[in-house]
Amino acid sequence: MSVIRQPGVLGRTTRRRVVGTTAALSAATVDAVAVGLWFGLVVDARTTSTALAGLGILFCGSLLRAGIFGATISEMEDLLQPRRLAAALTLTGSWIVWLLVAELIGDTTGFVVATLVLAGVLTGQFALERHVFRPQAHSRTARGSLVPAVLLAIGASLLLATAWFTNWTVATPPLSLEITTIVVRIDALHLGILCFGLFAFLAHHQRFERFLDP
């Protein structure tokens, strides 16, 4: 019997796609905001206060993203369990290691090596997250951690490239309002965050599709 004659099957498929897309969009937004704010704080003026503030933002974003992942693929439980905190801490550490490797090596070589390191570390973090939130998942979801990790690493490389290899700003003419004047400025870093968010969406969509498909 065709799927058209089974409205229940079609309805479940549609719901899975809607849930997967919504969860991927939510996770990508959290990643873009958290990583973008952290990166913007530490890449320009790195002081103790900005480093601590950026670290707090990055960890809160990692914890929230882990919560979205867990609520989507499993029953919602206490996110502050040690093993779930470990998944968020590992994600936070992944971004810190990525930037440290890029800066320690420097130039184009550091850029390439850091991207490869991030892809590898994220592959392990995604596998850990799968084990934490759905330990009974099939092996194909474990093998499927590589593609989302590579997509997210590519997005991160574009974010880093906008800070290292580009230096442009687009500003609108002053817009006069009744009590103030507004100037809208868009620079390369904003575009980098946007590209990172797009690749984050593609990465998370891949992950959720694998977990939500029967």
UniProtKB/TrEMBL annotation:
Transmembrane segments: 21-39, 51-73, 85-105, 111-128, 149-170, 182-203
Record keywords, A-Z: Membrane, Transmembrane, Transmembrane helix
Name listed for the protein in its UniProt record: Uncharacterized protein
